[in-house]
Amino acid sequence: MIIYKKILLQIHHFIFFAIFLILGIWSISVTNFLQFFIIIFFINFFYITKIYFQFNPNKLKIFTLIFLAIFSFLSGAYRTSKINLENQKTLELIQEKQINGIGLIQEIDFNEENNLKTIKLKIIRGYIDKQYEEKLCDKILCLYCNKFSNLKIGQIIKFKDFKISSSKNAEFNLYCAKEKILATIFTDKNKLKVIGYDYSFESYLFNLRDRVFRKLKSKINTETFSYFSSIFLGHKIKNKDYDNLKDKFNFWGISHYLARSGLHVLIILILLQFIFKFFPVGLIVKQILSISLIGIYTTLTWSSISFIRSIIMFFLCQICMFVYLQIQTLHIVTLTTIFVLLNNPLQLFFLDFQLSFALTFFLALFFDINNKKSIA
Questions:
Q1: How many CB atoms lie within 10 A of CB 268?
Q2: Handedness of CA 16, 18, 21, 23 (dihedral sign)
Q3: What is the pLDDT of residue 372?
Q4: What is the pTM of this model?
Q5: CA 283: distance to chain centroid?
Q6: Phi and psi angles of residue 331, each rounded to the nearest 5 degrees, phi first
Q7: What domains are there in the chain, each with its CATH number?
Q8: Are 195 and 157 in contact (CB under 8 A)?
Q9: Integer Cα distance of 121 and 189 in angstroms
């Protein structure tokens, strides 16, 4: 009983709040209700026991923490149900109908194997049967078309006669919902017309990233650039060199090294700290420079969930340093999990999120336990 009490008291409330948030998200799509009921029963039992051991007889604190736990659960359930409902209504609205509208080109990728361009088009205004639909705004269309040179990032495109059919693949539909993708469409030049150019800061950043990418590609040989782009830019180039590289990594079971993660952010930070040793400037200036350079690097590269996790953790650590708070890695991982899931709860159902956050959490937990042992 004493060991049980000691373990419970060491688990921070933030961890339980994150667990309740996850349970709330899971509750919307749960299929095995018995399994879900057993899990939530034991989590509730452990948490109520913990706060009873810690705060009894202070009833105000006990009820406050119980309220926050319930609020975390309901927040996850509400956010997930809201997103699912919006996606379902949008898909029902566009099913087997002609869509016209105006969109902004945010990204253009060329597949050398099948000679197709992939265009990421953000809808500015969308029409169904000549009627404006606000629900289509800010959704993404992934267009696949033959290679032609007059399309550029930042251009405003008028598209017409796009017929969208729903996919029967539930996993693909969930992925599209997570990425805010309305549909993937094979189209041709006749259905797209350039009507202007967007001069917003967002389009400037997309263009800058594309120019840097192309400049580096022209200076580095193809095979080396395939490695560099995947590992440090977070962008997989679809060509034979990358496919051969991926096959070799798969053979040895190390394909995860090709995906950019927090490790690469850590390598960059170590290099920055090493370079800053040669400059006689204060710690605060070094931290500001690190934040600025990491911010620029984030802007000019492609994101993944593991990269986003590491960037959020980095900024939270910097905030702790600026306000002279002790850095608790386990708390930072937990807060990062809460931020990411509140922003996009559908991330929870994908393996990249599960592996990235679970591994980071257990590493932070192991580090925290070792720290306490060394202090003791």
A1: 16
A2: negative
A3: 66
A4: 0.86
A5: 31
A6: -70, -40
A7: 2-90 (no CATH), 95-199 (2.40.50), 261-300+303-375 (no CATH)
A8: yes
A9: 14
